[in-house]
Amino acid sequence: MTRASQTISFILLASSIYLFLALPLLSDPHSLPSRFLESISIPGVSALRSTKVPSILPLRIQNEIVPYLPFWALITLASYLLGRLGLGVMRFKNCESAYTELTAHIEKAKKNLDSRNVGWS
Question: Distance (Å, rounded) from C-alpha 45 to C-alpha 34?
């Protein structure tokens, strides 16, 4: 299994779990505006108004935590990626070949700017 297919399958698994947890929120007729329910002209809507979809989570967690899970996951992913970037910058000098190549490019750019009489300090 390639890395891309592993990533896609993980994303699909995570989104399926989130939808399983958030589905009672989305299908709760009491969370919908009353004008929306009145505009529906499907037989049995009155039965829909009185039924609730059971949840496996306590009501407080279902209403206060589950809706914010995607934002939490996004912030966690961004923090992880920023941490990896910072760690890569900290360890950059340990890669001698890349370090010498980059410093050579910087010196070449400085000489180029000096030859054009451009202040670069």
Answer: 12
Number of structural domains the chain divides into: 2
Please check whether residue 78 lies inside any domain of the structure: no
Read off the tokens for 41: 């002209």
In angstroms, the CA 57 to CA 66 distance is 10
Amino acid identity at 28:
D
pLDDT tens sequence across 82-113: 999 999 888 876 678 888 898 999 999 999 98
> Within this chain, do residues 56 and 95 fall inside the same structural domain, yes or no?
no
Whole-angstrom distance, CA of residue 85 vs CA of residue 92 = 10
Tell me the pTM: 0.48
CA dihedral 73, 75, 76, 80 (to 10 degrees): 140
